[in-house]
Design a protein that fits this description.
The complex is a heterodimer. Chain A is built from 29 helices and 22 strands. Chain A is of the alpha+beta class. Chain A folds into 5 domains: 98 residues, Cytochrome c-like domain (Cytochrome Bc1 Complex, Chain D, domain 2), CATH 1.10.760.10; 91 residues, Immunoglobulins (Immunoglobulin-like, Sandwich); 57 residues, no CATH class; 225 residues, no CATH class; 56 residues. By secondary structure, chain B is α/β, with parallel strands linked by helices. In chain B, strands 5-8-1-11-12-4-13 form a 7-stranded mixed β-sheet, with helices on both faces. The chains are: A alpha+beta, B alpha/beta.
Chain lengths: 728, 447
C-alpha cells in the first residue's frame, strides 16, 4: 500500500471517527494493552495520541491487515530510526492499532471510569497536612519552662513558640546538679574549652532551674557540644540529630535554614517526587514508590511531631486529671480520624486504643507513619459490576487535596459523615465552598507555577556578573508574581483562560516591580499595568523567561518548546542523533543570527520550524526576563512566525511582531485551551495521559470551550466529571 | 580537647586515608576468588568523545591487544588503575526508544527500553544487599537540580519508577552515621528503639491490610513500601543492643555546603567528592553493599567552566556539560566546545579514578577494598554529539578474585545487558537473565 493511499484513507476515516458521537464503543481495554504503551512511547509523537496524525499520517481504521501493519512497523518505523521496534514490539503495536485505534473503540459517548489508585502525599501536601493537623487550630501548646517545648521552640510567656530561622535557644537541664557554668562549643566559635576562650555562656534561671541562652547563628549545618563547668563535654540531650564526634561520642547537629529545607521543615530529607517526562507536576501517583530513604525520613519527622503533640495533649479539651486513659484514647482517636481522613475501623480503633493506653506519643508516631496517613485513598467500594465508587470520605479527601492542597477541614469531614458527599449536589456544594476560600487561590498558584515550569526561577543559575541583582529575594518575588497573577485573573478578575496569556497587566510586589521597572503597588502585591505593549500575561513573566533561558544567554529553542509543550501540549520527536548544539557565542552576531542554521538546514527545519519562530519572538527579553533593546550592540529582530498552532503538520503559518500579538495567536487557538484542560487534569487527577482517560478529558475540553475558558468552572467540572467518583 | 571536633565533618579525604582504619574482620586469603562484596556504579552525564560524526575514530578506545594496550587521553587518569580495570570495545545498548540521552539513561541500568524494568542496582540491593543495614545507597551531586527527576535519574525501583538520589552530603552523613534517621552508626542502646519498632510494626500491619484491597499494580508499590519498612526495622534492631561493629572514624569534607550552596556549580567538585567519600565510608563500615553515585544528570546544565583549578575554568564564559557535548561534526581543537568537552570528560574520569584511589587505599582482608569491589563507570550515550548507543563507554574496575582485570575486552556487539548480568553473577546473585536482550553473562569477564 502506498503511503499516499494509506494517508488518504486513514484521514478520511479519522474525520468520520472525529465527528461521530454515536453509540458506545466496543469496550477495547486501552489501559491493559501492552501495544498501547509502546505506541505511546514510540509512535504517538508523530501519529497522535489517538491516531489522529500530526507530523505523521493519521492511523485510525487502517485497512491493511495486522500482519501487514506489523511488517511495515518492523521495517520502516519509527521513521527517524527504523529498526528500533522489531519483532514483538511491532506485532504488539500492530495489534493495538488494529483493535484500539478504530473509530468504534475510540468513541466517547460513554465516559469510561478512570483507575482507582493510592496517592502518596507529595512533600508540599505532607507539609500542609501536618501544619493543619498540629499547627494552627491544634490545641495551644503551653509550657512552664523551655524543656516542655520541642528542640527548636522557646518557651515565651507560657507558650511554645518556634524560633526564628536564624536563631536558636540552647537549653540545658542540670537535673538538680549544681554547676558553675555551661557553655556552647561548636563549629561556629571554634570549639573553645572555656568561656574566656570564646565559649557561648548559658545563664542559669533559678525559677525554671534551667541553663539557657539564645543566639543568632548562620544558616547551614553545624555541630556542637555543651560544656559543663568547662570540663565535661556532653551532647545536647534535646537535639534531634547527632553525628559521631570522632572520639567515640556524638556531636549534636543543628541545621538552620531560612529558605526551607531546615531541620524544622517537616519534609526535610524526603526524596523529591518523580515527574515523568512530559508531566510537569509533582502529582504523578503511579510514578512514586516509598523507599527506605522515605521511611527513615517519615520516621524521624513523625517522631518529632508526635513528641510535640503528646506534650501538647494536656491542653486538649479533656480533664486529664480525671479519666486519663479516656482522655488519651479520645485525643489519639481524634488525631487518627483527621490523619486518616475517615473513621477508624473497629480493628484500627482497638489497636490505637491499646497504643494510647501505653503511650500517647507512640500512638501518634504510629499514626503518622501509617500508610493510611501517607497515601490518600481513591480506591472506592466495589459496586459488583467491576466498578468502584469513592466513599464520601475519599471524595472529601480528593476535594480538599485537589482544591486546597491539604487535608480536609472539619466541615468537609462532617459533610462526609452526614453522607452529603454521596451525591453530586453535595459534592458541588462543598467544592464551591472550597473554591471560595483563600486556600484555593494558593493551590491554583501552585498548579500555575508547575504548569508553566516557573519553579526553576528559584534555582536556575544566572551569571552573577551579568545579572547582579538577581538574588534570592527577587527570584522569590518573581515566582510569587506568577502565583498571584494567575489566582487574581481566575478569582478576582473574572477573566477567562485567554486573559492568563494576554493580560496587559501583572500582579507584583515592590521587589518584583523594581525588577521590571514598574510602578510599585502600595502595600502588598497589587495589579500593575504593563503599559508599554512589550509583555502579555504569563508570556511576560520573568519566572518563565528565566527558567527557559541559560545562565548567560537566552534560548529561543527552550522558549519555543515552552509554548509547544506547556501551552499547546504538542510534543516533538527528539532531535536526530547528529543534531548540533548551541552555536558558539559570537560577539558579532545576535542569538537569532546564530540559530539561523536551524531553519536553513532542511534536516533541522523539519522540527525547528515549529520551535524557533516562536522562540525568536522573545529575544527582547534577556536571560532573566528583563527588557533589552539591543544585544551586544546589535538591534534585535523579535518578529516571528507561529507554524501550525492547532496541529503539527497542518501547514498553516501566522506571523507576529510583538509578544502580545504572539500571545493573542496562542490564546485564540483551540489547542491552547484544550491543552490547559489536559494540564489541569494531569495535576488534579495525578494520572499521566492515556487513551483510557481521553474521553473524560474531551468532555471537559468541550465544557471549557463552551464556558469561554472559565477556569473556576473547569476546576469544578474536573471534580464533577463522571469519571471522578466512579472508578475501575 | 585540642583537636577540633568539627574536623570530623570538615577535614578532607587525605586525612581519611591516613586515619587508622577498622576493617571488617580479617581473613588470610587475600583477594580470594568468589563474589565481590559490593557494587558501586559511578555515573556521569552526556557521554564521551567517541567516533565523530564525520568518522574520526573514538578518543575513548584503548589501542592494542586484549592484554597489551595503551589508554587514550580520556582514560589517562586510570593509568594507575589500569591493571584493575576492564575496558570494552563493541559493547552495545542496542536500539533505544526515543534515542539520545533520555533513552540511554532509561536503559543504562535497566537494560530495558523505556526503563520498563527494575535496574540492576535495585535488583542486587534486594538480593545480595538485603542483609546490610542499608540495602541501597543512592547519592547524587546536583542530580535533582531544577526539579530534575523522572528519566534523569538512573535507578529504577520497579518498571518505570525511578527514585531520587540524596544530593545533600550532610543529610546523607546524618542518615548513615547519625541518630536522626535509622542510626546506622549509632552505637549503644537508643532509648527510642522500642517505640520505633512498635510504630513500624503497626505500619506493617496496616500495609498488609491495605494491600489486600488493591490491584496488582498498586500492590507492587505497597510491596516496595513494605520492604523498605522491613529494611529500616532490621537496621534498628541490629543497632539496638550496641549493634554490629561500625567504623570509628567517618570523615567527610562538607565545609561550606549548605542549603544555599548545594546547587552552586562552583561547589560541584567538592560535593561530588564528599558524596564519593561518603559512599566509600558507608561501604567500608559495612553499612551497604550496593551504591550508585550519580553526578548531575543527562543533558546536564552543569556549568563546568566554574570549576576553579581545572582546565575548563573560565569565570567569564559559561560552558555547560550538554552544551559542550554538541561539539560539532569533527574532533576540532579549534572549537571551544570540543576542547571543553574533552577536558570535562577527562575530569569525570579523574573523579572515577579518585573513587578507585579511595577503595584501593583501604586495607581489607590482606588486600584492599577495591579487591573486593565491582565498580562500574557509566554514562548514557557513547559520543555526546552522535548520541550512539552501539559502543558504550563503560569501564569496570575491581578485584581479581571476581573479574579478570587489566584487559581490553572486544565483545563484538554484545549487549550491555550481558555486562549487567555478569555484575550480578560477580556479586553472587545467580539470576538467569536480565533485561530484554540478555544472552548470558558477558563471556571472559568473570574470573
Amino acid at each position: 500500500m502506498s503511503l499516499a493511499r494509506w494517508l488518504a484513507c486513514a484521514s478520511l476515516v479519522w474525520l468520520i471517527a472525529c465527528s461521530d458521537d454515536g453509540p458506545s464503543g466496543d469496550g477495547f481495554d486501552f489501559a491493559g494493552s501492552a501495544g498501547a504503551a509502546r505506541y505511546a512511547e514510540l509512535c504517538q509523537v508523530c501519529h497522535g495520541e489517538a491516531g489522529e496524525g500530526g507530523l505523521g499520517p493519521a492511523v485510525v481504521d487502517l485497512a491493511m491487515s495486522e500482519a501487514e501493519l506489523a511488517e511495515v512497523i518492523d521495517v520502516t518505523m519509527p521513521k527517524n530510526d527504523p529498526g528500533r521496534c522489531t519483532g514483538a514490539c511491532a506485532t504488539e503495536i500492530a495489534a493495538f492499532m488494529k483493535r484500539g485505534l478504530t473509530s468504534s473503540a475510540l468513541r466517547c459517548d460513554a465516559v469510561p471510569p478512570s483507575a482507582r489508585q493510592l496517592r502518596l502525599l507529595t512533600r508540599r501536601e505532607y507539609r500542609a497536612t501536618v501544619q493543619d493537623l498540629f499547627g494552627a487550630g491544634a490545641p495551644a501548646m503551653t509550657c512552664g519552662r523551655a524543656t516542655d517545648c520541642a528542640y527548636r521552640d522557646a518557651c515565651t510567656a507560657g507558650r511554645c513558640e518556634p524560633s526564628a530561622c536564624d536563631r536558636h535557644t540552647f537549653v540545658y537541664d542540670p537535673q538538680g546538679r549544681a554547676l558553675r557554668s555551661v557553655h556552647v562549643a561548636g563549629s561556629w566559635n571554634g570549639w573553645p574549652g572555656t568561656v574566656a576562650a570564646g565559649g557561648w555562656a548559658l545563664t542559669y534561671d533559678a525559677a525554671t532551674q534551667l541553663w539557657t541562652g539564645s543566639f543568632t547563628l548562620p544558616e547551614g549545618d553545624d555541630a556542637y557540644k555543651l560544656v559543663l563547668d568547662e570540663r565535661d563535654w556532653v551532647a545536647d540531650p534535646r537535639a534531634t540529630a547527632s553525628i559521631p564526634d570522632g572520639f567515640g561520642g556524638m556531636n549534636s547537629l543543628l541545621r538552620l535554614s531560612c529558605s526551607g529545607g531546615g531541620a524544622d521543615d517537616p519534609v526535610a530529607g524526603f526524596p523529591a517526587e518523580a515527574r515523568p517526562a512530559g508531566f510537569p507536576f509533582d502529582t504523578a501517583a503511579a510514578a512514586q514508590a516509598v523507599t527506605a530513604t522515605h521511611v527513615d525520613a517519615y520516621l524521624a519527622t513523625a517522631e518529632r511531631l508526635a513528641d510535640h503533640a503528646a506534650a501538647a495533649a494536656p491542653a486538649w479539651a479533656c480533664d486529664w486529671s480525671g479519666d486519663r486513659a479516656g482522655c488519651a484514647r479520645g485525643y489519639v482517636g481524634d488525631i487518627a480520624r483527621r490523619a486518616f481522613r475517615r473513621p477508624l475501623t473497629d480493628v484500627e480503633r482497638a489497636r490505637y486504643d491499646a497504643l494510647a493506653d501505653a503511650d500517647v506519643a507512640t500512638a501518634i508516631h504510629a499514626i503518622l507513619i501509617s500508610p493510611n496517613f501517607l497515601y490518600r485513598s481513591e480506591l472506592g467500594v466495589a459496586q459488583g459490576d467491576g466498578r468502584y465508587r469513592l466513599t464520601g470520605w475519599e471524595v472529601a479527601t480528593a476535594l480538599s487535596y485537589t482544591l486546597w492542597g491539604t487535608t480536609p477541614d472539619a466541615a468537609l469531614l462532617s459533610a462526609a459523615e452526614r453522607g452529603d458527599l454521596d451525591g453530586a449536589a453535595g459534592i458541588e456544594r462543598e467544592a464551591r465552598r472550597l473554591l471560595a476560600d483563600p486556600r484555593a487561590r494558593a493551590q491554583l498558584g501552585t498548579f500555575a507555577l508547575q504548569w508553566l515550569g516557573g519553579e526553576a526561577v528559584l534555582t536556575a543559575d544566572k551569571r552573577p556578573d551579568l545579572f547582579p541583582g538577581f538574588d534570592d529575594a527577587t527570584r522569590a518575588a518573581l515566582a510569587r508574581e506568577t502565583r498571584d497573577f494567575v489566582s487574581h485573573v481566575v478569582f478576582d478578575g473574572g477573566g477567562g483562560f485567554a486573559e492568563l496569556l494576554t493580560a496587559d497587566y501583572t500582579v507584583v510586589d515592590a521587589t518584583a516591580a523594581r525588577f521590571y521597572g514598574l510602578a510599585a503597588p502600595t502595600g502588598g502585591p497589587g495589579v500593575v499595568p504593563y503599559g508599554d505593549g512589550r509583555r502579555a500575561g504569563v508570556f511576560g513573566h520573568a519566572s518563565v523567561l528565566a527558567s527557559t533561558a541559560h545562565s548567560d544567554q537566552t534560548s529561543p529553542i527552550r522558549r519555543g518548546l515552552w509554548v509547544r509543550r506547556n501551552l499547546l501540549c504538542q510534543e516533538l520527536p527528539p532531535p536526530p542523533p547528529f543534531a548540533g548544539g548551541v552555536p558558539d557565542v559570537d560577539p558579532n552576531a545576535t542569538t537569532r543570527d546564530r540559530f539561523a542554521q536551524h531553519t536553513a538546514n532542511p534536516a533541522c527545519r523539519s522540527c525547528h520550524q515549529y520551535i524557533d519562530g516562536i522562540g525568536f519572538g522573545f529575544e527582547q527579553l534577556d536571560p532573566v526576563g528583563r527588557w533589552r533593546d539591543t544585544e551586544q550592540g546589535h538591534p534585535i529582530d523579535a518578529t516571528g512566525e507561529l507554524t501550525d498552532v492547532e496541529h503539527l503538520g497542518s501547514e498553516s503559518v501566522a506571523t507576529y511582531r510583538t509578544i502580545p500579538e504572539l500571545a493573542r495567536l496562542v490564546a485564540g487557538s483551540r489547542a491552547a485551551p484544550a491543552c490547559f484542560v489536559r494540564q489541569y487534569y494531569r495535576f488534579a487527577r495525578g494520572v499521566q495521559d492515556s487513551l483510557a482517560g481521553r474521553c473524560a478529558r474531551r468532555a471537559l475540553e468541550q465544557r471549557f470551550a463552551d464556558s469561554g475558558g472559565d477556569v473556576r468552572q473547569l476546576m469544578l467540572d474536573t471534580i464533577l466529571s463522571r469519571d471522578f467518583v466512579v472508578r475501575r | 580537647m585540642s583537636l577540633s571536633r568539627r574536623a570530623f565533618l570538615r577535614l578532607g579525604g587525605a586525612a581519611a586515608i591516613a586515619a587508622p582504619f577498622l576493617s571488617l574482620g580479617r581473613r588470610a586469603d587475600a583477594a580470594a576468588a568468589g563474589p565481590a562484596r559490593r557494587l558501586i556504579v559511578f555515573y556521569f552525564p552526556d557521554g564521551v568523545v567517541g567516533p565523530s560524526q564525520d568518522g574520526e575514530p573514538s578518543l575513548w578506545d584503548p589501542t592494542g591487544s586484549e592484554t597489551s594496550f595503551s589508554l587514550p587521553v580520556q582514560l589517562a587518569p586510570l593509568e594507575r588503575h589500569k591493571a584493575r580495570c576492564v575496558f570494552f570495545r563493541g559493547l552495545s545498548m542496542g536500539p533505544t526508544d526515543q534515542g539520545s540521552h533520555p533513552g540511554g539513561a532509561k536503559k543504562l541500568l535497566t537494560a530495558v527500553d523505556g526503563g520498563n524494568g527494575a535496574s540492576i542496582d535495585q535488583r542486587l540491593a534486594a538480593s545480595i544487599g538485603a542483609g546490610a543495614p542499608f540495602r541501597h545507597l543512592y547519592l547524587g551531586a546536583q542530580a535533582n537540580q531544577n526539579n530534575a527527576s523522572g528519566d534523569k535519574h538512573i535507578s529504577y525501583v520497579a518498571p518505570g519508577i525511578t527514585t531520587a538520589p540524596e544530593d545533600d552530603p550532610v543529610a546523607a552523613f546524618a542518615r548513615l552515621f547519625g541518630s536522626a534517621g535509622g542510626g546506622g552508626g549509632a552505637a549503644g542502646g537508643d532509648p527510642r528503639t522500642p517505640r520505633r519498632l512498635t510504630v513500624i510494626d503497626n505500619a506493617g500491619q496496616e500495609l498488609d491490610q491495605l494491600r489486600r484491597e488493591l490491584d496488582t499494580r498498586d500492590q507492587r508499590r505497597l510491596d516496595l513500601h513494605l520492604e523498605a519498612l522491613r529494611e529500616v526495622e532490621a537496621r534498628i534492631m541490629a543497632t539496638a543492643g550496641g549493634g554490629p561493629a561500625t567504623c570509628e572514624h567517618p570523615v567527610v569534607d562538607t565545609g561550606g555546603i549548605t542549603a544555599a550552596t548545594l546547587y552552586a556549580p562552583e561547589r560541584f567538585p567538592q560535593i561530588l567528592r564528599a558524596q564519593t567519600d561518603l559512599m566509600v565510608q558507608a561501604m567500608a563500615c559495612g553499612l551497604t553493599k550496593v551504591g550508585v553515585l550519580q553526578a548531575s544528570h543527562h543533558t546536564s546544565e552543569l556549568i563546568m567552566s566554574r570549576f576553579a583549578g581545572t582546565p575548563m575554568y573560565d569565570p567569564g564564559f559559561d560552558m555547560r556539560s550538554h552544551q559542550a557535548s554538541h561539539y560539532g561534526p569533527h574532533h576540532d581543537p579549534a572549537r571551544r566546545e570540543y576542547r571543553d568537552y574533552l577536558a570535562q570528560r577527562v575530569w569525570w574520569v579523574e573523579q572515577f579514578a579518585y573513587l578507585l584511589d579511595q577503595l584501593a587505599a583501604r586495607p581489607e582482608d590482606g588486600g584492599t577494598m577495591l579487591d573486593h569491589s565491582l565498580v562500574l563507570l557509566a554514562t548514557e550515550v557513547c559520543d555526546g554529539n552522535t548520541h550512539r548507543h552501539d559502543d558504550m563507554p563503560f569501564v569496570l574496575a575491581g578485584g581479581a578474585g571476581t573479574i579478570r582485570p587489566g584487559r581490553l575486552l572486544d565483545v563484538g556487539g554484545r549487549r550491555h545487558a550481558d555486562l549487567l548480568l555478569a555484575l550480578a553473577h560477580g556479586m553472587g546473585d545467580p539470576m538467569g537473565s536480565f533485561g530484554d536482550a540478555s544472552s548470558g553473562p558477558l563471556p571472559g569477564l568473570l574470573a
